[in-house]
Design goal:
This protein has about 450 residues and is an alpha+beta fold. Helices cover about 45% and strands about 15% of the residues.
């Protein structure tokens, strides 16, 4: 499925039409025959001059009342063209072009329709894992060296977090590590984020997580300007995710949902999104994991990841994420996996401060019909443990982490967890000793 962009004020459309759009003004007297001949003859030589666009379309003639409602945009070579009458990207241009319906054979001429176009694009593929300060610096350098104007991040959470950081630092300059504990603000290049996993929900949040390799910490960086101008959700991009990625990102979304639901910052709106996400994840993650081509499960998981992203953007995360980031930074465990390793112990701790919330979650996902909150809360944790086993979440030992080394850095990890601020959002008060005890219990 291609990417869908909406343009304001357009009428309903007929499906399955295709046309070429030229980046220059063709002769207004050009006939459809000569237009298509020029396109076919020059496609290879002038690859950057054309872009395929599939569009839902109302038949429209010069001077008529019908307008394009929305576009399905597909890139050709290294060019993308987006109809943008709201101007959210800026830099609108006006073109004359011919449209030919490949199905009906009818051709139409359109006068000066406003479009914005990218003349060239640069691909930066230097995000080779969870992003580090060095990777972001390299991305910023590529942005400036190629005189880029916009940032389109496509990939998993690492790619999307990196896109945010690169866009911000391309304008701010300096070292992103200097923004630890500060709001990131400024006028940044416009951003489009397209997740290919379900997911971190990064496309819906004002956060980015970057590893400071000098201090061996994962920095939680924030700022309202880190929200993208446009997020594109297309579940077909997630279908090729390996099972391990499906499990890790799915558990990350689940952790976002339950932590935001039980956060001190929770509110009725985030609660609604969180419970919706939890229902989708418990029902569909096992299917997406065991049957990767199941489109319905993939779609539901992508929606859930987005819902959970909205939740943490407003209600934040709690003890799991606070304790997870140090494990990822020091032992290079993928973020979603380190969350899942901690979920049972951390959420069991938190549940003692909010049994009613955990009980409500259990009932919502069908894990309990008990009227006793304490019992239902335990049922939630049991269902969560079953889900972790179903998607084969490893223990620290199974992952290959050395026990002695882990215990030797536990004090640092506890300090880093508290410094992140996330544990303070937990409905139950969290001390450093609590964190140390939970870390140690992971080896029981």
């Amino acid at each position: 499925m291609p990417i869908k962009f909406f343009a304001k004020g357009r009428k309903e459309a007929e499906p399955n039409s295709t046309f070429y759009l030229l980046k220059y003004r063709p002769n207004p007297q050009m006939t459809p025959t000569t237009f298509w001949t020029a396109v076919e003859n020059n496609r290879n030589h002038f690859g950057n001059a054309y872009v395929w666009i599939q569009t839902e379309f109302n038949k429209m003639k010069y001077g008529g009342d019908y307008k394009i409602k929305n576009l399905w945009v597909m890139p050709s070579n290294d060019v993308t063209v987006i109809v943008d009458d709201k101007g959210i990207f800026g830099g609108k241009g006006k073109l004359y072009y011919w449209y030919t319906d490949k199905y009906s054979g009818e051709s139409y001429f359109f006068p000066e329709y406003e479009v914005m176009h990218f003349k060239t694009s640069t691909t930066f593929d230097g995000i080779t894992g969870e992003p580090t300060v060095e990777m972001i610096n390299a991305g910023v350098a590529a942005f400036h060296e190629n005189s880029c104007d916009y940032v389109i991040g496509i990939g998993g959470g690492s790619a999307l977090d990196s896109a945010k950081a690169i866009a911000a630092m391309s304008a701010l300059g300096g070292n992103i590590a200097d923004y630890m504990g500060r709001d990131i603000d400024g006028e940044f290049p416009h951003m489009v984020l397209i997740p290919t996993t379900a997911g971190t929900g990064s496309e819906a949040t004002k956060f980015t997580i970057i590893t400071d390799t000098e201090k061996n910490i994962k920095m939680l960086l924030r700022g309202d300007k880190l929200l993208p101008d446009l997020a594109v959700l297309d579940y077909s991009y997630t279908i090729s995710s390996p099972k391990s990625v499906t499990a890790a990102t799915g558990m990350d979304a689940l952790t976002h949902a339950i932590e935001s639901y039980t956060s001190r910052k929770a509110n009725p709106i985030t609660d609604t999104f969180a419970l919706s996400a939890l229902k989708r994840i418990f029902a569909n993650l096992p299917i997406a994991y065991s049957d990767p081509g199941n489109e319905y499960a993939r779609e539901q998981m992508l929606i859930a990841a987005y819902e959970a992203g909205v939740c943490i953007n407003n209600a934040s995360v709690t003890i799991v994420h606070g304790m997870s980031r140090p494990i990822g930074a020091l032992f290079h465990v993928p973020h979603g996996i380190s969350n899942a390793m901690l979920d049972i112990k951390c959420l069991g701790f938190a549940a003692q401060g909010a049994p009613g919330k955990f009980a409500a979650a259990a009932r919502a996902v069908g894990a309990s019909d008990s009227g006793d909150d304490a019992t239902a809360a335990r049922d939630f944790l049991t269902a969560l443990g079953n889900l972790c086993r179903e998607v084969e979440i490893p223990t620290l030992m199974e992952y290959g982490i050395d026990r002695e080394k882990f215990f030797s850095v536990m004090d640092k990890m506890a300090d880093d967890a508290l410094a992140s601020g996330s544990p303070a959002n937990t409905i139950r008060e969290v001390t450093k000793q609590d964190i140390l005890d939970i870390y140690a219990s992971l080896w029981d």
